[in-house]
Amino acid sequence: MDVRRSTAKQRRAEAVVAGMRVFADHGFVTASIQQVADEIGVSQPYVFRLFGSKHAFFLACLDELERQLLEVVRQAAATSPDDPVAAMRAGFRGMLAGGVISGLWLQACAAARRDETVAARCRAVISGILGEVARLTGAGMDGLARNLADGALVVMLQAVGADLTGGSLAAIDSLRAEKETP
Q1: Which of 21, 70, 110, 182 has a CA-to-CA distance to 124 between 20 and 30 Å?
Q2: Domains along the chain?
């Protein structure tokens, strides 16, 4: 039997993927590093050794969220040069489907209310994404604001379990209809 040990870099990447799920589901304060350690088969102290602190681990998860978002944006622009914005939106919706990205983002925004370091990191993620979208699409301020607003709407609708298969407007119409039905 050939047993291979993972490098610290590989374990760190595994921990970030697991951490994104745990933080998305439980938030920064109540998330347990032990859950992450159990999932990737290491000890809790080892996870702390990889990141230094729970706070640094959370920030590493936000770094990965940004990396994934930028990958979706860049891939969309490369594969759909005629309409990169539509491809970016489709890629973003696909990325949100599992709930981890939207959950982590909402938890990060909640943590940002009381933690300036997390708030600064969230602002940097938004700034980086907006800058890349502007660079790749030539979108101006109005287009960027509209795309950011639409993205925030999709995150919120996905988080509350709205059916997004028909798009945001169909989901809003469905929610409005629920209110009108006695």
Answers
A1: 21
A2: 8-180 (1.10.357.10)
